[in-house]
Design a protein that fits this description.
Length: about 70
Amino acid sequence: MLRFTLDFARECLPDDFDDVRYFFSKRGAYPKFKALLARRGAIDRWHAYENKAIEQALRERCALHEIEIVG
């Protein structure tokens, strides 16, 4: 999950990347990240990015283990 978060910040919130990286070096990072997303009006973009990234990771994992995806 951290990789997706940092990738999103790098791609979509480049001016905030250092702050996001700092958030995730401490406890309580996710609420701070969500607050930043709200301030930037980027919550919906984050959810779309996260969903796509998770789907891609799952597809890659299935391919690695030769699991057929149906549907």
